[in-house]
Design goal:
Largest sheet of chain B: 7 strands, parallel
Strand content of chain B: 15-25%
Order of helices and strands of chain A: HEHEEEEE
CATH class of the largest domain in chain B: Alpha Beta
Mean pLDDT of chain A: 95
Number of helices of chain A: 2
CATH class of chain A: Alpha Beta
Radius of gyration of chain A: 17 Å
Number of helices of chain B: 8
CATH architecture of the largest domain in chain B: 3-Layer(aba) Sandwich
CATH superfamily of the largest domain in chain B: P-loop containing nucleotide triphosphate hydrolases
Oligomer: heterodimer
Largest sheet of chain A: 3 strands, mixed
Helix content of chain B: 25-40%
Number of domains of chain A: 1
Strand order of the largest sheet of chain B: 6-5-7-4-8-9-10
Shape of chain B: globular
Order of helices and strands of chain B: EEEHEHEHEHEEHHEHEH
CATH architecture of chain A: 2-Layer Sandwich
Radius of gyration of chain B: 27 Å
């Protein structure tokens, strides 16, 4: 379960950014998980409070937004929102798509005291 | 105090000159990360929850790993080493393929192998004695290799005059997919005993692969394996990877894999 590592990376990143801003207490944080990021929401939500314990993020609320896949067709240039297990153009059926959104695991914002 | 509407500020409180019991509500909205407004209320008999200052950061959570991976890649480039990150489920034949690869590579390919496992150095032992540097990394409780683990090993190759570094990741189709190690090529392996649909069951790993190796093809006569279906599933995962079918045991298809390694090798 690599979400423990991901939760650790998230806590490290949020702590670093909060401290850079002169804050020592994070109340909540907003993250986005792309459909092709390899991050499982439930596992992350399970791991986060454990990793956050004793840090500036102890007790912080984790708000997760799931970002669907967005891809541009290299054939007809139109946009599709395919499932990760069936990446094909919903307009022309081409499988030659460029994924433009949905790969990232991002920390969007922090709410600090 | 709320930064959006100022509720709770002195200027927004109201006086009561009469006594009666009531619960009153302040309703207000917050803008969520999805851009939508979310409304909620506070009752006066509920403790008010804390509101803080919002800092917008928009950063990749794995940026630390990615930064180390970039440093690894730069280090490898300076030392004219091509690194390949080999990923598969446990038992897809990574170590067997590496054994045969080390035996088959021509002399101008000087190779080092880093093998990752949670425990034991059994794989490293199997790969010893074939003229290549072999090092085992044990990750213990960790289910994947990350860029920092590779970074710690690189110095040993500074004067080793190798031109290919083969990294055998932990046998796992999920976790290794999220971690850039600084490799130049991501190799996803799938053995014919696993079923044709692995690429769509684990699309993250296959989507990000530069090469997909379909291994253990010598076993196909004993299975109901549909090669075309497997290729189709690889494409459905969004992968544009080159696909090589091979059997390390029989040697079938190994030439195509060795040719790929030679083309990846730095020629400067």
């Amino acid at each position: 379960m690599h979400e423990m590592s991901l939760a650790q990376a998230l806590v490290d990143k949020a702590t670093e950014l909060a401290e850079k801003d002169g804050c020592h207490k994070v109340l909540s944080l907003d993250v986005s998980i792309g459909a092709l990021s390899g991050v499982m929401r439930e596992s992350l939500e399970f791991c986060f409070p454990v990793v956050a314990r004793g840090t500036a993020l102890d007790g912080a609320t984790l708000n997760v937004t799931e970002v669907p896949l967005k891809a541009e067709c290299s054939n007809c240039r139109r946009i599709s929102y395919p499932e990760p297990f069936e990446i094909e153009c919903s307009h022309c059926g081409s499988m030659n798509l460029k994924v433009t959104e949905g790969r990232d695991f991002k920390l969007i914002s922090l709410e600090v005291e | 105090m709320c930064i959006d509407c100022g509720c709770g500020d002195a200027a927004n409180t109201h006086d009561h000159n009469h006594e009666h019991d009531h619960t009153h509500e302040h309703g207000h909205t917050h803008r969520g990360s999805d851009g939508k407004e979310y409304r909620h209320t506070h009752d006066n008999d509920q403790p008010e929850h804390e509101h803080g200052r919002k800092i917008r950061v928009e950063q990749d959570v794995l940026s630390k790993n990615n930064d180390i991976a970039i440093e690894n890649r730069q280090w490898l480039d300076r030392h004219h080493i091509t690194a390949l990150n080999m990923m598969s489920s446990p038992g897809a034949g990574k170590t067997m393929l590496l054994e045969k690869t080390l035996e088959r590579l021509p002399q101008d390919c000087t190779v080092a192998v880093l093998v990752g496992d949670q425990e034991t150095d059994l794989d490293a032992q199997r790969l010893q004695g074939r003229g290549s540097m072999v090092k085992q990394i044990n990750t213990y409780q960790c289910c994947h290799l990350d860029a920092a683990m590779i970074s710690r090993e690189l110095e040993a190759y500074g004067d080793a005059h190798i031109n290919i570094l083969l990294i055998e990741n932990i046998g796992n189709l999920v976790c290794p997919a999220s971690f850039d190690l600084g490799e130049h090529s991501r190799v996803a392996m799938l053995s014919v005993t696993e079923g044709e649909d692995k690429p769509v069951k684990y699309p993250v790993l296959f989507n990000g692969a530069d090469v997909v190796l379909i291994t253990k093809t010598d076993l196909i006569p004993h299975l109901d394996w549909d090669m075309q279906k497997c290729h189709s599933y690889i494409r459905k995962s969004g992968s544009r990877a080159r696909i090589i079918e091979l059997s390390a045991r029989s040697g079938e298809g190994m030439d195509a894999w060795i040719d790929y390694l030679q083309t990846m090798k730095r020629h400067d």
